[in-house]
Design brief:
This protein is mainly β. The protein has one domain: Superoxide dismutase, copper/zinc binding domain (Immunoglobulin-like, Sandwich). It is built from one helix and eight strands. An eight-stranded antiparallel β-sheet has the order 5-4-7-8-1-2-3-6, with no helix packed on it. GO terms for molecular function: copper ion binding; superoxide dismutase activity. Its EC number is 1.15.1.1.
Length: about 190
């Protein structure tokens, strides 16, 4: 009888070791990271990095932008992952899968791509932003932002002017791509 008990105990221990540790914390395997490397448009000197991280079902954005003048600057996700035009118009309009009016990020009705304003830190300083995004997925589905673009504008988003908040010229653009992966840009229909 003791032989059977020892054998059962050994099998239990082996099963636990093979199953691995368990717990309430999330694992790195459920984390998805995408990055947009901002490049200057036109005569702008603005550049930087915008990192999107999906973890525990939430998408967070962290922006590190260089060269922004003091003051607010419109900050949006646009529908196409195309930064090829010197004026940034190849990125299309704001990402707007729900076909709603433009507005402030926390307003009941606004484009999904309306991220608000970046508060420019001034010449020689880095502008930073860290926020949770609502209504996005970090994939290529209908609400997905992979393959789309992030743009920084010269002027503040006024949150009311239609269709895009009167944010002025597009001064930096980057395509949102999976970190360490291959992401095809979303392109305009031909």
């Amino acid at each position: 009888m003791s032989h059977d008990f020892a054998r059962a105990s050994l099998l239990s221990i082996v099963s636990l070791v093979l199953a691995g540790p368990t717990g309430c914390g999330s694992s790195k395997s459920d984390e998805v990271v995408a990055v947009a490397e901002l490049a200057p448009l036109g005569a702008s000197a603005v550049d930087g990095t915008v990192t999107f991280t999906k973890k525990n079902g939430e998408v967070h954005v962290e922006a590190r932008v260089n060269g922004l003048q003091t003051g607010d600057h419109g900050f949006h996700i646009h529908e196409f992952g195309d930064c090829s035009a010197p004026d940034g118009m190849s990125a299309g309009e704001h990402f707007n899968p729900d076909k709603t009016d433009h507005g402030a990020p926390k307003a009941p009705r606004h484009h999904a791509g309306d991220l608000g304003n970046l508060a420019g830190a001034g010449s020689g300083k880095q502008t930073t932003l860290d926020m949770k995004l609502e209504g996005f997925t970090l994939d290529t589905g209908p609400r997905g932002i992979l393959g789309r673009s992030v743009l920084v504008h010269a002027a503040p988003d006024d949150y009311t002017s239609q269709p895009a908040g009167n944010s002025g010229a597009r001064i930096a653009c980057g395509v949102i791509r999976l970190r360490g992966g291959d992401t095809q840009p979303v392109t305009a229909p031909k």
